[in-house]
Amino acid sequence: MFEDLRWFGFGWQEGPDCGGAFGPYNQSERMPLYRSALNQLLAGGWIYPCTCSRKDIQAAARAPHAADEDEPRYPGTCRPSPDNPNPEIRIPKFNWRFRVPDGEQVVFTDGNLGPQRFVAGVDFGDFVVWRQDDVPAYQLAVAVDDAAMRITEVVRGADLLKSTARQLLIYRALGLPPPEFFHCPLLTDATGVRLAKRHDALSLRALRERGAVPESLRKADRFSLHL
Questions:
Q1: How many other CB atoms are there within 10 angstroms of residue 13's CB atom?
Q2: Cβ atoms of residues 62 and 75 within 8 Å
Q3: Are 222 and 210 in contact (CB under 8 A)?
Q4: CA nearest 178: which of 119, 117, 110?
Q5: How many domains does the chain have?
Q6: I need a surface site. Which of 29, 115, 196, 201 has the fewest CB within 10 A?
Q7: 165-180, pLDDT tens digit by residue?
Q8: Position 11 in a domain
Q9: What are the start-end ranges of the H helices in the chain?
Q10: How far apart are the first and last CA of the chain?
């Protein structure tokens, strides 16, 4: 991956391959940081245990499903309520889910797409921060990593725009300053479908082996290779 990224035109000053002041850079070596953040969220009342599987959520009759989401919005099955403040956990393994402040508008300005506004509990629901296999979920891990490494700007694909709203809630709950965000258009094929593993898209290495040149990939919103 390092070789392919350098071929593509990326350069970096610190990381798993070259070290740096904010290591370790392998997430598997950063578990104490993630567990500390999880304990802080638990102490602040931000998270609760959830036994629902993805299949359970998809099967929930009242679970809305936006077209741009990989899964339905969580319907709140395990969420504590005044009538049930401590739902019983009947199985030994469960996820920890972040309780979003329903109705709150999460507002930020994206460096590329401008002002953004998402409503917690409407545009997205309670989300997993720690998985039942005892590892941090994406939303928590990236927030903790960025804060620990003093990241000032996050540049990533536009498909993660809504994740920014979730992560801003995590930053606030942990008392951490958030970075700036810049969301880029996605690389697509000739028909406009984004390149993704689930669509059997070619990897950067495969494109390279078929004769692609870095300049064409960097400059084009859509890339079509004819060999």
A1: 8
A2: yes
A3: no
A4: 110
A5: 1
A6: 115
A7: 999 999 999 999 999 9
A8: no
A9: 2-8, 31-43, 54-59, 138-148, 161-174, 204-209, 214-219
A10: 24
CB 86 within 8 A of CB 137: no
Question: Which among 206, 139, 220 has a CA at the least distance from the CA of 174?
Answer: 139
How do residues 71-115 score in pLDDT, each as one tens digit? 678 888 889 876 666 666 666 689 999 999 999 999 999 999 999
The alpha-carbon radius of gyration of the chain (Å, integer) is 20
Which residue's entry shows tokens 């956990």?
89
Strand 95-98 vs strand 127-130: parallel, antiparallel, or unpaired? antiparallel
d(Cα 41, Cα 211) in Å, to the nearest integer? 49
Looking up residue 118, the CATH number of its domain turns out to be: 3.40.50.620
Q: How far apart are CA 212 and CA 210, in angstroms?
A: 6
Q: Is residue 225 part of a domain?
A: no
* Per-residue pLDDT, 21: 94
Beta strand 114-119 with 105-110 is: antiparallel
The residue range of the domain holding 35 is 27-185
Residue 159 covered by a domain: yes
Give the number of residues written for the chain. Answer: 227
DSSP notation for 22-41: T---SGGG-HHHHHHHHHHH
DSSP conformational letter for 48: E
Residue 61 is assigned to a structural domain of this protein:
yes
How far apart CA 140 and CA 129 sit, in angstroms, is 5
